[in-house]
Amino acid sequence: MLLRGALGPVLAAVVLFSVVGVLGVVAVQLVQAPVTPGPDVASRLLLCALPVVASTGGPLAVLTGFGAALMGWRRAGRWRALMASGVGASQLVPGVLALALLVGSLTATCTHRLEPQARASARDALLEPLRPRPGRLLSVAGLALHAEQVEGDELLELFFAVEDTVGSARAGELTDEALVLHDGRVLAGETLVEFDLLRIPLPEPSPRVQLVERSDAALADLVERMIASGKDARYEASILHKRTSWPVGAALLILMAPPLVLGRRTLALAVSPVVFFGLVRLCDHAVGSLGALGSAWLPVGLLVLANLAAWTGWRDR
Questions:
Q1: Domains of the chain: which residue ranges?
Q2: What pLDDT shows up at residue 55?
């Protein structure tokens, strides 16, 4: 009965969090984009933003909606009526556990699979306008480039312009850092110069692949390579561990809602996610001392203790 009554507030919170979160994520991506994306890229970004928002915003939305439902239940006197009829908090446990497990499972699916894929796809969408196409003018950060043919990474029969310098080349390659040209000529002012090799640095190199864009396997491989080369990989390893620890933490936040809200400690529930993520950030900075596992799981361990304190300290159960 409680979960059925919570369905409306939870769905409303999920929709609100999703709309605001998706628009916020896409707005940041559009502002940071190296070139202004077209409508097709913007639509891809909207789809890619859904798993990103669901990964963190989804559990918080469920927690908000579930907390609101519990508060309405308490204010309407339903909890007091159940207590008077001899029904205790034990009747809530199966439903709350089911909801917590559902939230944790969906969050784990996002953190381990959907979110990395979505972030990588969004990055590809943002870089799509930067990829040369045969016969199409490419303009980015002051560089204009036109190639008659594109064969893999090789560009053939090029025309280029940078500020007041124009030129042409037989072939070239566009890397993340520079435009490399072969066998051409360039006109700077009134001077025509022929060249065998010319390298033009790009004003804005392509963004590097971020840790959150890597799959579990790719991130684990990166950690192994860093360790093998003698580099400190504790932070990178903690990112991988947090893909599991956060779903567990999300489930624990849901479990903590009934004793706090029905026990008239709603403010404690409201600040619990803030405290949790604050601890996560502190542990990120202390990863050198705590290690990868300690950094990822210490906030979750403290959340377990908070759950035990909330349930055992709930007097009206």
A1: 2-128+210-312, 142-201
A2: 95
Question: Sorting pLDDT into bands at 50, 70 and 90, what band is 157?
Answer: confident
Instruction: Between 13 and 178, name the one with better pLDDT.
Output: 13
Long-range interactions of 223-232: CB distance < 8 A, separation 24+: 232/288
CB count, 10 Å around CB of 132?
20
Q: In which residue are the tokens 């489930």 written?
A: 251
Query: For residue 209, which of 240, 173, 176 has the smallest C-alpha distance?
Result: 176
Q: Are the beta carbons of 144 and 138 closer than 8 angstroms?
A: yes
The string of pLDDT tens digits covering residues 175-199 is 767 788 899 888 877 778 888 888 8
Distances (CA, A) of 236 to 199, 228, 249, 289: 34, 14, 20, 14
* pLDDT of the residue at 85: 65
C-alpha 209/C-alpha 115 separation (Å) is 14
The identity of residue 4, as a single letter, is R
The predicted-structure confidence for 90-119, as pLDDT tens digits, reads as follows 677 888 999 999 999 999 999 999 999 999
User: Is the pTM above the cut of 0.70?
Assistant: yes
Q: Give the number of other CB atoms < 10 A from CB of residue 4.
A: 9
34 touches 140 (CB < 8 A):
yes
